[in-house]
Write a structure and sequence with these properties.
eight-stranded mixed beta sheet; 20 strands; binds flavin-adenine dinucleotide; FAD dependent oxidoreductase domain-containing protein; FAD/NAD-bd_sf; oxidoreductase activity
Length: 454
Amino acid sequence: MNRTNEQVNLSNPSSLPFRLLGGWIEQPSDLQPKLEGSLTADVIVVGAGFAGLSTALELTARGAKVVVLEQEFGGFGASGRNAGYLLGSMGIEFEMFAKRVGIEHAKKFVNFYDEAVCYVERRMIELDIDCDYNPSGIIRAAIDPSQEKWLRRSMKVGHELGSITRFVDQDEMRARGIPPAFLFGSEQRGGTLNPGKYVSGLRRAAIQAGVKLYEKTPLLSYSEGSTITCKTAHGSATAPIMVLATNAFTPQLGLLRDKIAPIRVSAIETQPLSPQQLASLGWHGREGIITPHLTMESHRLTAHNTMVLTVKKLNYVYGSKTPNIPDDHAYTALARTLHERHPSLRGLGIKHCWSGYVSVAYDFLPVVGTTGAHQNIIYTAGCTGHGLATQSMMGQLLAEKIMGTVNPILTALYHKTPSTLPEPFQWCAFKTAFTAAGVYDRLTDRKALAAHAK
Ligand SMILES: Cc1cc2nc3c(=O)[nH]c(=O)nc-3n(C[C@H](O)[C@H](O)[C@H](O)COP(=O)(O)OP(=O)(O)OC[C@H]3O[C@@H](n4cnc5c(N)ncnc54)[C@H](O)[C@@H]3O)c2cc1C
């Protein structure tokens, strides 16, 4: 149920053009077959996003026979719907991390997030994936002076943990042509890419490498033991090891409900900017911008000259469900944000709106481990809204572990994940937290608007 009306009317959110698959990706023309009959493999990977495809590629390169089961097609989940920020440790809440696991352990998490950026940059070259990567750096930019204190404190704690960032002052922001709504910020290496092209490149590389990818093949159930048999609608696959790379969908398989919650994240994409609009914007470096709001905003230009904004309003669906439906409140908030931060683009139409699900642990840390009587079910989830780099690199870490070498970076990620609340408490807790964050962020927005109006 795509909606195609391009006449944006913020008082009528259902006029916003919702797209079921997001703005970056189509169902592939070479859809891989459904699984029919029974087969065996060394490893079964469930889910073909960054994590699943990366794991399958890394395992195949090490000589394993790998089967991937995907309920729709490679890139259907968050991997094909995100904002395309290849971002390292700057995306994480340093103070909370340090309090939760201690300074020394937190340093290792920071190292994982930053190494993961290098991993993806290397893989794009090794696998010859052209995904419009612009290594522009990412700036976490304040929209109001009241955000400076938090920004500087976060940078200071980050530096203590080994996260390399630099402060970009107002003069430099203006000299670089960053839109004037963004006053100053903290910058880290990384950049923006087209996530649809990146995940499709992983999918193509996996098929070429000999990974048996079965699409439109949801895992329906599995039996545990020294070997695991995965049942699908028309067949079954058996292997000594199963990797669950199903991210936010995992609780629906009856696993990780006590560790992660699926959170809905939304995005809007504008119509292409005209050459005049691009010139008036003057944003030469096209740096990816995120803000230090409690619920952040992200603003970026794409290689096809549209602008993509994400987040601003998060949502949680009762019972950890993940329906692929519009989130009109989020799209309206993003459209309003577009007009507030980029007044020179007033009148620019919205081309697409979409949503996807990330998985979040209560400590916002990655959730990786093994389960089952034989500890041969491996799972990876919980990289919140920063899984492009991390879930890609997880592929290498999991493949190494399966083939018998445990990378110290993986060992460092093991920790006790706090238990989630049962319903209805989890639903109430998320709704309350998101509403409170929204009220606080709106106050910041109003202060910024008032300052700009002077
Ligand atoms: C709007 C939005 C913006 C974001 N922006 C960024 C960003 O800029 N930078 C960043 O780092 N991160 C971002 N993220 C987060 C990032 O996209 C995710 O962390 C990452 O894609 C997770 O990858 P994954 O492979 O673990 O999961 P997914 O991509 O969700 O893959 C899971 C796969 O499992 C499949 N599956 C589920 N159940 C079954 C089943 N029963 N049988 C078979 N297959 C199944 C799904 O169809 C899906 O393809 C964003 C997310 C969203 C939604």
